[in-house]
Specification:
The structure is a homodimer. By secondary structure, chain A is α+β, with helices and mostly antiparallel strands. Helix content of chain A is about 30%, strand content about 20%. The first copy, chain A, has two domains: about 110 residues, Creatinase/prolidase N-terminal domain (Creatine Amidinohydrolase, Chain A, domain 1, 3-Layer(aba) Sandwich); about 220 residues, Creatine Amidinohydrolase.
Chain lengths: ~350, ~350
């Protein structure tokens, strides 16, 4: 990809890209890669860690900002075209760098690049898939635990914290994102955050959680109802599940990600809920919880073997509640293989009488 | 500040700056501020939340990237000079925006700005100070708890997790940063992360933790020794403590932050540990765990009444261990007022015999 762009070297600044290529997990560092060099530049706080974490990169200790060391490195190695990550490098960092290059009259051109490393990242190696699978298994286990916790006396926050503790105490490195437990009308907000609201019988509870193992994320959603569900909720559950299963069944390698999105969206539209499915069908999962490919109506990505992504249609009815069902899948031999194991055919949890008084 | 720069409006993209000015905590949004408008632009996922969280901003629902809505907004309001945050806006976002402006032949100039909102943020309002104080009190309480936990049979990771649970279960919104518990030689790395290493008698344990209350952070470090300390460790403890107390005593409003750093650094240098104090004396604390002012030899900041920052000298001896003592202070009526309450005069924890065997 660098040769196609005519680059002598590439400066990698995006932290997940740095980790992907080098193994370095520190919060401050740069990779500089050419056909003969692989350099990890970081300051004195991180040089020891860098040496421990990276195998193939030469660790270079730097001091000060990019413009104080990069131009000299580049001119010393006779690079003339240096790529950088245009979606990550700030306007100010780029500006200072190019001013320094001008002032020093170096024959060095800065070339913006977009998603070079991200394109590598979206096709997972077997070792990466294994880590994602471990993270997926852990969220499956956490959901088992969650089913035992959720009860009409617990708040969303309490349930979310119990789930987080379970994940952390069972091997998750932090969490992939703050767990979502959203009940009743709160579940109608796709990005709801847990509140002090107590779970009620007859209402939905939407659980959206993710673990992280060896740096790799899982992402998981299920929606349950404590006791008997409102007719509309049961109906939208059925529609979402049907759409999710249809997408899993019909997605193929080589398909446009926008077309994959349409597989589920068409069914939701036919059921009369087109405007209630406001987000995309899914997103890639890896070192980042959201990474390419993007499965949405406006995506220009293409789905390929080795990609790992979520399939998570949802229907959200303001004031009543929302339903989202989310699995992680990988494309293998042309078809979607579902990594998530948790059941999704049972919506209404038994054992909760809707007449039961709500107490604290 | 906008008038000084001749700006008709300012685009704020840095998330902490958005939160500071508007109250909005979502992960995706922009503020656009002029003398007659205060707009919070966000997509459909966050418009409900934005309306709940912000009082003085008009919430505008947007779709797509910056260049698809901002140029029209700006030209509709007849703005000609639009400031943006040059340290945060990416090269690519700026480039697309200016290409769109060119293509539409708009009379609109993009003006880079640095740290405009950050300069406001570093002087704390009484309400902000109150939240920081609550977070500081919580880390003090967590340290009390930590003293009960740390014992020669616990791993660094276990201790860090117990501390995190205490913080989270007592009101911290997540943690301000991942807790550091570093023992023995690990404590010599200023950015150590907890490992599976078991705490040993006769070794130091460095604890560095932070809570978050109402969005505001605390930052706290203490170093203890389980039982009798190596002579050198006791000596560096005394030097660090003396340097820390001297800095607290002599810092004044109006002083250059670099000079404040020197107050502690001189003493450490005189004791012969100049090269073992590799980081700055401190940093501002607020919505971000690290924000202006920066107390370091190369800082150009000035310390002013109302600022809140850490004072945290350290000495790190590779292979043996490190000592860091960190308090949060605020400048009030010209002098540093220490917010942190935990004792720092006792280094060696009694009750641990150095002859005690290490078991699991």
């Amino acid at each position: 990809m660098m040769a196609e762009k005519g680059l002598d070297a590439l400066l990698v600044s995006q932290p997940e890209n740095c980790r992907y290529l080098s193994g370095f997990t520190g919060s401050s560092g740069w990779l500089i890669i050419s056909d003969s060099h692989a350099i990890l530049a970081t300051d004195s706080r991180y040089t020891e860690q860098a040496k421990q974490e990276t195998q193939y990169f030469e660790v270079m200790q730097i001091k000060g900002e990019l413009d104080s060391w990069l131009p000299e490195l580049a001119s010393g190695l006779r690079w003339h075209k240096l790529g950088f990550e245009a979606n990550h490098l700030s306007f100010a960092a780029h500006h200072k760098l190019s001013e320094t290059i001008k002032a020093k009259q170096l024959n060095l051109e800065l070339i913006p690049t977009i998603n070079l490393v991200e394109r590598l990242r979206c096709i997972k190696e077997p070792e990466e898939l294994e880590l994602i699978l471990k993270a997926v298994e852990l969220t499956d286990a956490a959901f088992e635990q969650a089913r035992a916790i959720i009860h009409p006396s617990v708040t969303e926050k309490e349930a979310a914290w119990e789930i987080e503790k379970f994940l952390r105490q069972n091997g998750s490195e932090g969490v992939a994102f703050d767990p979502i437990v959203a009940s009743g009308p709160n579940s109608a907000l796709p990005h709801a955050r847990p509140t002090e609201r107590i779970l009620h019988t007859g209402e939905v509870v939407l659980i959206d959680i993710g673990a992280r193992i060896g740096g790799y994320c899982s992402d998981f959603s299920r929606t349950l109802c404590l006791g008997k569900a409102h007719k509309t909720l049961q109906e939208i559950y059925n529609v979402v599940l049907e759409a999710q299963l249809a997408a899993i069944d019909r997605i193929e390698s080589g398909m446009a990600a926008a077309q994959a999105d349409q597989l589920a969206r068409n069914l939701i539209q036919q059921a009369g809920y087109a405007t209630a499915f406001g987000h995309g069908l899914g997103h890639g999962v890896g070192i980042a919880i959201h990474e390419p490919p993007t499965l949405s109506p406006t995506s220009t990505d293409c789905l390929l073997d080795g990609m790992v992504f979520t399939i998570e249609p949802g229907i959200y009815i303001t004031g009543l509640g929302g339903v989202r069902i989310e699995d992680v899948v990988t494309l293998e031999k042309g078809r979607a293989k579902v990594l998530t194991r948790s059941a999704k055919n049972s919506f209404q949890l038994s054992g909760f009488s809707n007449q039961q008084p709500i107490e604290r």
